[in-house]
Design a protein that fits this description.
- The chain is of the alpha/beta class.
- It has 2 domains: 196 residues, Isopropylmalate Dehydrogenase (3-Layer(aba) Sandwich), CATH 3.40.718.10; 139 residues, Isopropylmalate Dehydrogenase, CATH 3.40.718.10.
- 40% of the residues lie in helices and 21% in strands.
- The chain contains 12 helices and 12 strands.
- The chain starts with a strand and ends with a helix.
- Bound molecules: 3-isopropylmalic acid and magnesium ion (MG).
- Magnesium ion binds next to helix 9.
- 3-isopropylmalic acid binds next to helix 4.
């Protein structure tokens, strides 16, 4: 089969990890007789440098007309000026919004051979397999008003945490559907003891839960959920939560897996194009050195094959190869090893 994939390598280590993920896709294409047509575009800081904007209309429409989008990372100190009129991150948010990818799936699995790479006690990490579903196009990231201005002698800023019931409903429904194929457990995370938007979230989650009697629903406040992720992560299955809560909790959860460089993500819309990206950032401190861990991006391509291209066997092939490479001891520096980005990918490809 033939598919069109837009590549947005972005900034920092983004280009290095996307290059390796494309090598993996090419091996899959040859093995299973597919054709992947790539179109590469600028997004983030590199797009600001070239076009004066972090996301051009053309790039967005090229993404919209492809079968899937693979993104590396955006941002870096070069574009960090708080007074700049555009930022790399704005392009990423505009892309998520422009593709209507409201559901961000962040699976967190602890590989048995990497238990030692996490600072947590080994007994807490046995059997950890969590799927965090982060709402991605609403909440605090997008609510209006959002501004910073002078009010008399004072400087004032506001961000707004807003949700419509339908935005909560569609993401919680997805959480229940995915939980059905897992351990049938949904933890809906909110701050309902303080926030009105969380009380709405909890009400909608409870209503949706009634349609899934086989799935156990629990509500947990975000502060105690943050603690439980460290004290009892193996007791959690599917977590569904607001945009910013999900941003914070998934960085925390990445510690369980041994390194942030391990975690992939899939951002899905109702029926349209999916966006796939590792959850790590642009890591400017190691950019250009060829030592970044490519696994988060390689596993993101597995999710791309599964969710956007419906190529389950090919997706599983990548996941198993990553699994085996780690079992065999392949480690980049973030995991305490010495392999380069390219060598790690070679180790994975060997297992196809
Ligand atoms: C993430 C990142 C982004 C976010 C940044 C780069 C805007 O932290 O994908 O988790 O906050 O969503
Ligand atoms: Mg984040």
């Amino acid at each position: 089969m033939e598919f069109k994939i837009t590549l947005l390598p972005g900034d920092g280590i983004g280009p290095e990890v996307v290059e390796e993920a494309v090598r993996v896709l090419d091996v899959i294409a040859a093995k299973y007789n597919h054709t992947f047509q790539y179109q590469e575009r600028l997004m983030g800081g590199c797009s600001i440098d070239r076009y004066g904007t972090s996301l051009t209309d053309e790039t967005l429409s090229d993404c919209q007309s492809s079968d899937a989008v693979l993104l590396g990372a955006v941002g870096g100190p070069k574009w960090d000026d708080p007074n700049a009129k555009d930022r790399p991150e704005r392009g990423l948010l505009a892309l998520r919004k422009g593709l209507s990818v409201f559901a961000n799936l962040r699976p967190v699995k602890v590989h048995a051979a990497l238990i030692g790479a996490s600072p947590l006690k080994p007994e807490r990490l046995q059997g950890v397999d969590i799927l965090v579903i982060r709402e991605l196009t609403g909440g605090l990231y997008f609510g209006q008003p959002k501004l910073r201005e002078m009010r008399g002698d004072c400087e004032y800023a506001v961000d707004t945490l807003e949700y419509y019931d339908y935005e909560i409903k569609r993401i919680v429904e997805l959480a229940f559907k995915l939980a059905e194929g897992r351990k049938q457990k949904v933890t809906s995370v909110d701050k309902a003891n303080v926030l009105e938007s969380s009380r709405l979230w909890r009400r909608v989650a409870t209503d949706v839960g009634k349609k899934y009697p086989d799935v156990n629903l629990e509500h947990q406040l975000v502060d105690s959920a943050a603690m439980r992720l460290i004290t009892g992560p193996a007791t959690m299955d599917v977590i569904v939560t607001e945009n910013m809560f999900g941003d914070i909790l998934t960085d925390e959860a990445s510690v369980l897996a041994g390194s942030m460089g391990m975690l992939p993500s899939a951002s899905l819309s109702e029926a349209g194009v999916g966006l796939y990206e590792p959850i790590h950032g642009s890591a400017p401190d190691i950019a250009g050195k060829g030592i970044a861990n490519p696994i988060g991006t390689i596993l993101s391509t597995a999710l791309l094959l599964r969710y956007s291209l419906k190529l389950e066997e090919e997706a599983a092939c990548i996941e198993q190869a990553v699994d085996r490479a780690i079992t065999d001891g392949a480690r980049t520096t973030d995991l305490g090893g010495t392999l380069t980005t390219r060598q790690m990918t070679d180790e994975i490809i060997k297992h196809f």
